Fold this sequence. Notes:
By secondary structure, this protein is α/β, with parallel strands linked by helices. It has helices spanning 4-7, 70-90, 101-112, 122-137, 143-159, 176-193, 211-216, 228-231, 240-243, 266-273, 285-292, 328-354, 390-395, 416-420, 422-426, 448-470, 486-497; strands at 21-24, 30-35, 47-48, 61-62, 165-170, 203-208, 247-252, 302-307, 357-364, 384-388, 479-480, 498-502, 508-512, 532-533. It is built from 17 helices and 14 strands.
Amino acid sequence: MSDQFFERPIINSPYDYPAKHWELDDSGQPTQQLLDSRRSVDFVTPIPKPKRRGQGQTAELDLGNSVGDSDQRYHSGIISGVRAQVDLWRTSDEKNWRVTPETARLLKYWRHHKFSSIRPFFCQVEAVETAIWLTEVAPTTGARGKNYLEHLADANNNANPGLDRLALKLATGAGKTTVMAMIIAWQTINAVRRPNSKRFTRGFLIIAPGLTIKDRLRVLQPNDPDSYYKTRELVPGDMLPDIDRAKIVITNYHAFKLREKMELSKGGRQLLQGRGDPLQTIETEGQMLQRVLPDLMGLKNLMVLNDEAHHCYREKPPEESDEETLKGDDRKTAEKNAEAARLWINGIEAINRKLGVARVMDLSATPFFLSGSGYAEGTLFPWTMCDFSLMDAIECGIVKLPRVPVADNLPSGHDMPMLRNLWAHIGKAMPKKGRGAGGVIDPLDLPPLLQTALQALYGHYEKTFHLWKDASITEPPCFIVVCNNTSTSKLVYDYISGYLREQEDGSTIPQFGALNYFATTTNMAMPWRAPTHC
């Protein structure tokens, strides 16, 4: 029987409504049957159920289509219901859209304009349509929209008191930055042309989890040379002047940490303080906001756009936690998650108190609570109202398709099942902390089984490399190695690509990499440079 699911995964156009999907059985495995309908909203999440159990009981793994509680299954129904309402609304006559003329024009433009280069994907337009429907349409449809708006309000009252959050779930690679640009365009044009409406704003704070993502988001600034509004034609030409009136600040959540206004040594602090009250040298919330978003200080009812929003949440109180007591590295990871989430959400709440936040738009491929949140790890944010999953993105040809090779060049004595579960056999021999914590570890001392696995998979890569080259494919395939931490990653990288080996006299000599096409310590001229990622 042919394995059509893997041989022909792309079955839909990225620009049209998904018309087909590959059927999965109850365990999430493909049946090889192609169904003539869109994939339903299901959450196949192999994660533990809440772990608060009596002593001696073990957590079971839930491999079904829900996370294991009725609230999560009900939430799937909510997302499906919103999708159905948006589908009906999208195909209805324009006179029944119940949106402003400005919104109607943008919708027609995004759906039907003949873009000269990059056209928005269907999933990008659908995400913005969902936000528009919940903002402009649902409040005017009576009982039809009331159910979804009440769910959204209840979800926020329980998890984000005082904030109105709406999460849009799009698979990694589906283009969340374009969705942000479309949301900003919709809000700004309406705010400029309808200045008295409280539904729209032209003030935006975009928050990223790190500097790299922050730099990538600069294309959302109207005056950026690569601005998406112009280069990707996301706004009709006559509306571009309205976009120029948007006030946009892009930052990362670390900026919300209150800083010292003056650096003092311990002795200097005691000298200045004398016998008086302790010196207040930490900036206030107001001073922090003036530092982070000075261009927005004169505006009210801002919109916050959270990129990679799964890092932002208010954790449950310990007495309400669904998590077990964590230990070791798991506990440290949970504490780190909670600290980052607390700083992020505290910053937004401070902005809401001082300036007012009309809505927080969360964008993420994985809007799930992390460990340390007090929620069962992997629980979907209940304010998620739109879902375009990784399976949807694969079937529409939007994301790259990873291939896991089945090696046919394994040395005798090794079998594939062992390599499939490699970590179980080598984990104890791999470093857990910094590379220098227990002395320098030689990359050539990696466990023999790991070296065997790398060599076997590299053999498959090498064949693919030449096949692509012979077919005149201009980009080589990637060789991806996933490691448990940065220490292991560095060791594996050095083993693959080579490194400088230190001698007893302090000098260094180059150590050639173990995998030829990735070796960097050689002068071998490669006709085609192969990328590696660890």
